Amino acid sequence: MIKTFRGLLLDDEQDRIRLSTKKGKIGYKIINFQLMPMNPGNQTNESTMKIYKVVQSTVDEVVDLSDHNILAAAFYVNTSSSGTASNTTTIIFEQETFNQDIYITHTERNGNEPCNYYLELESIPLTDNAAAVSTLRDIRLNPQVGA
User: Fold this and answer.
1) How far is the C-alpha of 7 from the C-alpha of 35, rounded, in Å?
2) Could you tell me which CATH class the domain 2-142 is placed in?
3) Domain ranges of the chain
4) What single DSSP character describes residue 40?
5) SS3 of 64, please?
6) Fewer beta carbons within 10 Å, N or C terminal of the chain?
């Protein structure tokens, strides 16, 4: 089954997508992640959105794909000049299965333009062993998950 989520994030804001269950027997994989500014074509903006496995204490535009907590990163550039608009988007996402809440962050480099996101997750039933492994991996890598 496919679950979809959408929202609008202000500059330096973070959303929580609630996915965890008591037994953790439903896993998820990202299958689509898209960005769209609130006012496309009206002004220049550079938005960076990232999806994490744990809540972030700070929201920034630094993308470090070696961070084991990052599941996805997207960078959207919209340039508006003399009535013409051009945009580019770069999106990278992990094919990892997770069964805990995830967090989406947004940073806008050229001001404070809000940005929309659209996220599709594929839900996957997990066996008892797979659920335990996924939960224990998250607890081992992120001690605050079990708190």
Assistant:
1) 10
2) mainly beta
3) 2-142
4) T
5) coil
6) C
